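ingest -> validate -> predict -> emit
validate: passed (alphabet ok, no gaps, 117 aa)
predict: started
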Amino acid sequence: MKLITQDKEFFPPRMEEKLSFVYKLGFDGFEIDGSLLIEELAEVKAAVRSTGVPVASACGGYRGWIGDFSSERRSQAIKDIGEILQALADVGGKGIVVPAAWGMFSKRLPPMVPPRS
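emit:
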């Protein structure tokens, strides 16, 4: 079993320092925000190479949601996730975490009533 962590506010800002820091804390790898991975791909690749600490997965960082009722927003999420997965493969990552639609409500799904008024 491997123990991986997401980014935290108290981690160093630069990727190489961040990966070294999480390794010193006892983690086996790092879970990166998908948009950060895309924006800083060259820096992430260099940091993984220099530290040997893997970026094992990505979480979030895409626009929309894959279960959205709007085909436009759903398509945007799928496109963004594809780009994140490609970048993740480039750094040796294994997959992306796509959380459920936390906080979304629809009268199209049971229980058909809002949880709050």
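The radius of gyration is 17 Å.
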